[in-house]
């Protein structure tokens, strides 16, 4: 039974039924889903908006580019939009749900082939459905000494989707956008393009040199709806001869700001290669329930959190980094770090063979799901990440916390934020998780209002997100100004004149 409520805009029931039959003729009946019960995994969102605003009409799962080409032809014929996902686990950013209702999910999970691995150059070429867990198992089975640069939910998400949404990992490579090389992209008209060196028949350097010849177009297909990425190359980090996880405890926001300035200098001089710094409320939330530490109204008071930290023996702020290299290099760099932080923070070296905190495990190539514990903290299944870009400055970080924390508290939510330092030591992502109860309508309204104010106040102060959930894509696109938005619209009209590919992605429409 196909519900009238989720039909693509402008399409009647009979036309949609014919389109579904044509989709099934392409991929097989079992790979086209249109009944609402089976669609639940695709529209089960965590963001503070009603699921009906992101209800898909159905889902289609092709197993290769030729099937995608045929699906595009049917979609163009019936004017049915396609919302593409790789694994669909974009938690806190909209998961697999489309930006607007009435789109068909183009689910690329069946396209999960590891096409090539070069253990000498440390490059790979994979399809969108490949997960980090699958890739890690492949590296382990073949004794390849390479580490994956995976994000927090590493094992169950994949490098293609995470990179296209400009996600970050934790080892020395950090920003995944800085370490992909070469794409295969299908445009709305069925044209297939291999970017960069991939345009040369039989290219030997497709995963080695990203720029190719002429305009570099790969960026057009990140956070966009201008094409469907069907293959993507990556550079992996070679396993170092030695590594050393180092944690730095810091007592106050001011100390955290000073520490960030020190780390910027160390990063620019390649003493350190990665760093996460944040308030320890988030790691505490991974391990305890909120009700166990506070039952009052509103946000948890700072003095209550301080008591919890004292009991657990953790500082207010902590930084986590891992040194890579030879043992001799690690000894030298550890001394530089200790000297740099003398009198400011407590520097500790963690035993690599012992129990490591989740960030350190991420930094040394051990995929884990530890961070999912944070969703048990408040309960209710609500999560919306607010991710600002800041100049890499201690004063900017303290200012950003001073802007954002009161907004969280105004709406009764707990500030839980930290910094991911960019690979070239010029910027950092101030990432905050807005946790709330989706089953409580009043709390949903407050969460939406909280996120809305975070966005508007920060934009007015000269800051903006680099990545945002589907409920706020339009407002974020507006923040980047009419010139950028108009250019995106012109590109959309040129490459996808019928508006088939993911209307509303990043606020881009025809």
From TrEMBL:
The biological process GO terms on file are:
lactate catabolic process
- Which is an annotated Pfam family here? FAD_binding_4
Recorded GO molecular functions are: D-lactate dehydrogenase (cytochrome) activity; D-lactate dehydrogenase (NAD+) activity; FAD binding
Superkingdom of the source?
Bacteria
Give the record's keywords alphabetically.
Answer: FAD, Flavoprotein, Oxidoreductase
Q: What is its cofactor?
A: FAD
Q: Which residues form the FAD-binding PCMH-type domain?
A: 52-239
Q: What Gene3D superfamilies is this protein classified in?
A: 3.30.465.10, FAD-linked oxidases, C-terminal domain, Uridine Diphospho-n-acetylenolpyruvylglucosamine Reductase, domain 2, Vanillyl-alcohol Oxidase, Chain A, domain 4
Q: Which PANTHER family match?
A: ARYL-ALCOHOL OXIDASE VANILLYL-ALCOHOL OXIDASE (AFU_ORTHOLOGUE AFUA_3G09500)-RELATED (PTHR11748:SF114), D-LACTATE DEHYDROGENASE (PTHR11748)
* Name of the protein in its database record: FAD-binding PCMH-type domain-containing protein
Record the organism.
Answer: Sphingobium quisquiliarum P25
Q: What is the lineage of its organism?
A: Bacteria, Pseudomonadati, Pseudomonadota, Alphaproteobacteria, Sphingomonadales
